[in-house]
Structure formats: C-alpha cells, structure tokens
C-alpha cells in the first residue's frame, strides 16, 4: 500500500552569520494510513523543523513532501488551503499556541471558518460542541479564555482545533512534554483513542523515548538533522544498531530498581554545531566505536533487516 | 543509628495574597540522615518546591510564610533563625540547585567569579590565589576545563551551565544539597551525564541530598528513600525498595503515578492515569485530600483525615490500610 505521507531527501538550511545551519539534511520517511511514526532526538536535532516542513509551515530548501503521491511543496495558495484540511498540527506548548484573546469556541471554530467546510453559525457551533466532547472538554468551557484553563485542558483545545477539519494526518510536536505525568497519560490515551476511531496517521515528535515507544508503530531516530536509524518500534528496542540509538536507550531512567546498581554507559560530550557540518557521520566525535571510515563521506541509510534501516559504517 | 541531619515536623506553609489564601504545604514530616538521598516526588503544585524553599527561608517575602511546625538542622530549629543567621547556613551548610540552569546564573559575571563569590563569603581563604586554586579544583570536579572560568554563562551549553550551578552549590562542601528538578530542563543523554556525576560527587563528599523530581525513573536510579507528595502533604514515604515494590500496599495516588508512565519493559496498550486534576489549593477538599480523584474512595475518606500506618519505616496515609489504628 502506498504511504500517506512521504518525504524524499527533505532539506532545510537556515542562513546564519557564521554559515549555513543544516537543521534538516536529507531525511527520507514514510507514514502509512492510520499509523504512527515516532521521531525522537535531542534538542537541536531538527525534529521540530522536520515537523514544520511536513505541514508546510516552513519552506523547504530542497527535497519533496508527498501526500498521497503528490508533491505538496510546489502547491499554490489555493491548492494549499485545500491541502491543509488533511494535514494538521498539534503544537508543543499549550500556553503559547492558543490565541489568548479568543475564546475556546472561537479557537476551535477558526479552521472551519477559514476552510468553509461547514456553513452557518449553528452548524459550526454543533461541530464545536461535538469536538469538545470528543476531546473530553466540558461544555461549560465553551466561552472561557485559554488563560483560565490548566495545561492539560489547553492541550485538549489544541487537539480539538487540529481535529476540526477531520484531517487524515496530524503532526504532533511534543504534545505532552509540557504536562504533568498523570495529565500526560490522559492526553496520550486520548490521542490513541482518536487514532483508533478515525484512522488518523500521526507523526509524533518527542524527546521522550518511553512515550514514543508506547504510541508508535515505527521510530525514526534523528541526530543533527539526519535520520540515523529507522525501524519498527519493537525491533528498535530489542535490537538497536546505531551507537547513538544505544546511548539514547541506555540514558532513559527506568522506574524500576533492577538497573540501579548497574554502571551505566554514558556517552561523553555534547551535540556538535549544526553549522556547516563536515561530511561523514555526525555522531562520530562522540561515538565510542568511531573509525576512520566514519569521516569524509556521507553515510546513507542501509536496510540491515526488513524494515530496519541504519546509517552506520559498522553494519 | 545514623544521626538525623534535617528533621521537618508538621510543617505548614501558606501563601497569602489579596484575594486568596493558598495552603501550599499542610503538615509535612520529613527527615534525612547524613549522606542520604531523599527523593521528593509529586506533580506540579504538590508543594515540593515550597518545602525546599522554606528549609532555606527563601519563601517570597510577605506573601509566603511558615505558619506551623519546625525545621531542625542537627537539632537547631531553623524557623527561629534570623535572616543574618540564615546567611551563614545558605551555601555553606545547605545549598540549593535550582530547576532552570539557564536563569539561575548571573549573565554579566564570569562563571569563575560566581564560584569564587561563594568561597569568599563563607571560607577564610581570603587570598586570591587560594580561592583561584579552589575554583579550578571545583570546576575539574564537575568536569569542566578550568581554563573556561573566564567565560560567561551564555558561552556554555545547558548541560554545562547545570554543572556550573552544581559546582557553585558544592563549592563549600555543604552537608545538605536541595536539588529542585536539576535535570528536567536537560536532554536525556546530558541528564544521564549530570546524574551520574551527581551520584559520584555525593559519594565522594558524603553530602545528603533532597532531590525534587516528578520523574520516577530518576528516583529509581539515585535515591535511597522516597516521599510522595500530594496537595501539600506527604501521602507515602519509605525506602526506594518499599516504594517500588509492587507487592507492598501503596497509596492509590502512588499507584496512579506509576500507572501513568509508559513502561518500556512492559507492553500495555492503554495507560492507567489518575482521572481529574490536582485540587485547588485555596479550597482543599475535606477528609483525604485525594478522595475526589481516588478510584477506591470510601465513605470515610470524604470526612475523616486518614491516620498514619507505619511498617518498618514505610509510612502510608490512607484509610484503605488504616486497619485498627483509627
């Protein structure tokens, strides 16, 4: 089956005073209908930029984003507006992504009014109530302003707004990282229920590996703008190949005493600068298994077993 | 029997503003021994940070105050200390690491100066050369090349800034370190680096630590004992083994906290979080504070405060396990 969303050699460079910042550098991904792709990585690895490129909130420097086989990057304004019905986004910070001067109903109704999918005030309000019910917001909040609500409820407004146009695909950019654990779990459950009911596809961007393992079918690990490993979730956790993936997995604190007295392997150093990177593996400077071959040439993703791709000279 | 370094008894803290009275901490009992790490766990608004701030008397002036209870450091009651006395405690005997390394350093002073400042205030090493040597030593201890002491905070990454904050906190080798979410703002690999460094330093310097966090994974890896807070109260406390033992009786809130984290080792389709939200701290519910969200709420929970049930140091405040002790 053809994937719903596909990126081909997608690139985004930001010009800075000291050179070109390679935020996203040649990423190839695909997401099938009703599936979830988790994108993990540390701050500055380009995961949020990738999300914004896919929903066309940023203009790509190169490459393609295919939706249903058609490249949406060269769409005109009118086509784009039509397109946006199918692709929506949930933002990271529920405190900053809602207009403080609009009420809950105005926020949720806005995409409907912009795309004119439903005509008539009453019909729109019916839809707003239906959406609020779907995401678990009580009717009494319909005329409140975002500042009156807590983080969990605000994030539900963000989700309701993303669902307003009945999209097929939603980019979720760290939707739960600003929330407390119990609220985080409530929102994750909601997102998974919605996926089951509506057959939504998600691109789930996060730095939290436990969350991504829980929600995703497939995981892409990013490092400095590149995808270094991609595999189905179970496979990635059972058999991580790239040294960076291994280090990431080893670094997660697990709420279990079994690992308490084990000496953990901690990777040294910090993420290098993404400005004018040299060709070669970008993780090599921190990699415990780095070899001379790692430098000098770009490393493509190679399939080591069905569905498991890794960009590393070791494999 | 090890000596109690710090003992908090029946602590109440309120914030009073023009339109409301916020009951932030409501009768907290905590103690910590020398060289021990106590994890203080809870969600936003549970009163973790307020508890830490009241130990150092750093509550916002006029707004926040300790209304009842005592905080004794090696037998001396800190709540009776004057501001001048506290200045000798802060940084020297008890020091604090704040949550956000980006904002807790002074941007217009070099990091070397900021570390030296603590030493000059508290130690007799007035000679510049001695102070300089000590600054180099401390920077090495936290894994930062001493040459970088002439740099300003903005020239460091987040992980390195947090190391500097830790260096400042440890400069005088305090007996107690209050760490308020020291790694929450950091990436996982950097978090792992900072945590393993803190563990090592703790062993080396025999510093006791109160680690405030909401991450049970961090607790499992660093703490000796754990206290779980909800709505300004400690609802369960014990050793890590007791708290992480799935067989032992637990407060329903503790169970909910564990149910809310996706576990990498187990495959579950749905998480089991606690429904609802933290109660409004200006109008706390009657009876057990947790009864409005508790899946196992009984009639008695709505009206009566649960009594303490203690078994081998595992403290639990819940009617479910009160037995005949009511």
Compile the SSE list and pairings.
The complex is a heterodimer of chains A (315) and B (326).
Chain A: E1 5-16, E2 19-31, E3 36-40, H1 47-54, E4 62-67, E5 70-71, H2 77-84, E6 87-90, H3 104-115, H4 121-135, H5 151-163, E7 169-173, H6 181-198, E8 201-206, H7 209-215, E9 218-223, E10 226-232, H8 233-238, H9 243-251, E11 302-305, E12 308-310
Parallel strand pairs in A: 3-8, 3-9, 6-7, 7-8
Antiparallel strand pairs in A: 1-2, 1-4, 4-5, 9-10, 10-12, 11-12
Helix pairs in contact in A: 3-4, 3-5, 4-5, 5-6
Chain B: E1 4-16, E2 21-33, E3 37-41, H1 48-55, E4 64-73, E5 76-77, H2 83-89, E6 94-97, H3 111-122, H4 128-141, H5 158-170, E7 176-180, H6 188-205, E8 208-213, H7 216-222, E9 225-230, E10 233-239, H8 240-243, H9 252-260, H10 299-303, E11 308-311, E12 314-317
Parallel strand pairs in B: 3-8, 3-9, 6-7, 7-8
Antiparallel strand pairs in B: 1-2, 1-4, 4-5, 9-10, 10-12, 11-12
Helix pairs in contact in B: 3-4, 5-6
